[in-house]
């Protein structure tokens, strides 16, 4: 019996009707199993239970609730494991009812949850279900259950509950703990106002300020949407994003394909004709009157939102980021640092040109780089300080990621004075530091101040 913990693998097995393959899977920080559906029509207590279980996963960086799987306690580990699959009648599971309960019982609402019913291949009238809470929702935590149910069944809307999953349990937070956290939060509110004024001062004095920004909820949700659209959920992904920090947008985005901003989306400027870049094929398409999308299904995608956000996603494995490296058993994904640098440089150049078409032009641009799901059979990826382009190699050291589920970098730059190479250096410096490298070890750097990564420092002849 397999103990499957990868959310994408569990979802794929459900989608393929391979329910029995989940037998042996243990409950954990990210996996919860229920023998039967929540009886949401019977009482508010079950609604509270649903809200509690989902918010606990959201507060613990996401996970999955499997509904229709009986568990038993492993006497050796004292952890609940799936013992059997128990498909139930499809009429007992109403997806919209689940969404409605979560909408009204959890604050803030968790919009990107996936709730699906999977029919049994042997009896389509029955099946099992899963609720998937993506890791990206943790950016908005804490999530609070906004109602409490008394023993007599009465619901109190003025009482709240906070739950966070720890290992395979949802322990109760003590009154003293909650009071301490609320007290600290009130103190932080005052401190936060002072910190905001310091960040403004830094932004005015520095060409960029790294480490003081956080991915906005808007970007996080749109990255999830793009991954679903391109079909790369749960796969190793190379994610790049840029957004205006002020009210700025692209009024020409839907005018015609001849508009300059659309031409940039469909034919991104690249350093080399056959170089490394995320450049999804044209033509682009308009999606819900909100964005233009250029996508190569299963491979890469570029989204440009009318309200001022640019997102690009490509493979984090051997189709791009680990290009021309051979897979080896027991070895993590070997990131090619030349590809990492060139793709990032091409994206920042694209963002620089795209936001010149914005109205009004942004004051600052916030950049994000994210490498996610960078594991093979649980083995994390590696990064080297070698210079791995063939013409100008350089010996270096290889290091393993301490955690390859999500490797991120964030940076904000003043748009009018932004230096592309300096932004690229600032982003990659954070990636290398995550692996444990000193900045002096980063390859392809122009060491003149301010430090930059440029086509010249990468030995790229533009136009070749």
What's the SSE blueprint?
Blueprint: H1 7-15, E1 31-34, H2 44-59, E2 63-67, E3 69-73, E4 80-85, E5 88-89, H3 95-105, E6 106-107, E7 114-119, E8 126-133, E9 144-145, E10 148-149, E11 155-156, E12 161-162, H4 175-205, E13 208-210, H5 217-230, E14 237-244, H6 260-266, E15 285-287, E16 291-296, E17 300-305, E18 309-315, H7 337-354, E19 364-372, E20 375-376, E21 379-380, E22 382-384, E23 398-400, E24 406-414, H8 420-435
Parallel strand pairs: 1-2
Antiparallel strand pairs: 2-8, 3-4, 5-8, 6-9, 7-8, 9-12, 10-11, 13-24, 14-18, 14-19, 15-16, 16-17, 17-18, 19-24, 20-21, 22-23
Characterization of this structure:
The chain is an alpha+beta fold. It has 3 domains: 7-173, Schlafen, AAA domain (Methyltransferase, Cobalt-precorrin-4 Transmethylase, Domain 2), CATH 3.30.950.30; 178-205; 208-441, no CATH class. 26% of the residues lie in helices and 23% in strands. It has 8 helices and 24 strands. It has helices at 7-15, 44-59, 95-105, 175-205, 217-230, 260-266, 337-354, 420-435; strands spanning 31-34, 63-67, 69-73, 80-85, 88-89, 106-107, 114-119, 126-133, 144-145, 148-149, 155-156, 161-162, 208-210, 237-244, 285-287, 291-296, 300-305, 309-315, 364-372, 375-376, 379-380, 382-384, 398-400, 406-414. It has an 8-stranded antiparallel β-sheet with strand order 13-24-19-14-18-17-16-15, sandwiched between helices. α2 links the parallel β1 (31-34) and β2. The longest helix is centred in the middle third of the chain and has 31 residues, at 175-205. The protein is globular and about 65 Å long. Mean pLDDT is 84; it is low at 171-177 and 186-215.
